[in-house]
Structures are given as C-alpha cells and as structure tokens.
Amino acid sequence: METIAEAKNDTKLYETRIDIKESNRKKLIALLNQHLADTFDLYSQTKQAHWNVKGIHFIQLHEFFDLLAASIEPFSDMIAERVTALGGVAHGTTRMAAKHSSLKEMPNISDGKVYLEALADRYAVYARSTREAIEKSGKIDDPTTEDLFTEISRIVDKDLYFIESHLQGK
Ligand SMILES: [Fe+2]
Q: pTM for the complete prediction?
C-alpha cells in the first residue's frame, strides 16, 4: 500500500489568492487526499456489508449499514473540495482510492456479527486517523481544515458507537 504522502508529487498546484502559504497547502492537500481515499474505501465497504449481510437480523443490519454509508458519503465531497479550495487536485476516482487507501479490504463474509466486527475495526482506524488529521492540520496552521476534520471526527465516533453497541451489552 502506497500512501499519497509517499507517492511521487506530480500533482499540479494551482495559484490561488487564499492566504495559506504554498508549502502548507501541499502538506494539507496530501493529508486531505489520503482521507479522500480512505473515505471512498470505507463507504464502499459499508455498502458491501449492506448488500451481502445475511441471517436472522438481516433487515435491521441491512438498513443500519445503509444509514452508516449515508452518514459518511458526504465527507468525500467536503474533503475533495477542500483540496481544490487549496489549489490542489482531488484524487477522487475509485482506482485512486483503491491504490492509496490505508484500510484493510473487507473479507468475503455474510454473517451479521462478523460484518459488525469488521466494520468496527475499520471505523476505528478511520476515526483514529481523522483525529490525527485534526492535530496535523492544527500544526500546519490551518484551523479551517482542522475544523473540517473535527466535524468528520464527531460523526465517525458516533457511527463507531452505533456499530459497537451491537457487540456490547452481553
Ligand atoms: Fe440499498
């Protein structure tokens, strides 16, 4: 897995009147594009669970996984348009996401509990990297990107709580 930050920097940086210096914009764009890849991957893995889950709790989990997917889908547009607002090029295709995602692939499963555990693992990774991105954006002196990641963090933590609640209370 090659992260976008490690990838050869052959992306065009547009000139812009935004008052953030070029060296900081480059770092922010790499950070945001990494999260764009992870977001698309997490979204498609959640839909994979929505489509393929089986078992006695089918309809509950089928509908729950669709709610989760709908909760994270808007992040991709928010992140991609922050990239372009900073003068960057969004790495937004499925192939780009597949190449750069830091998440593990969803295994070929059908059991509802196994899907919940697999999704909890992946949402936890995404929640952690989002929290790290808040800190990184702050260090790069961009409170606007920091705020974007903070908004995502709040929602993803809630999504993780919803997933894990199915696995608790035994
Ligand atoms: Fe559906």
A: 0.92
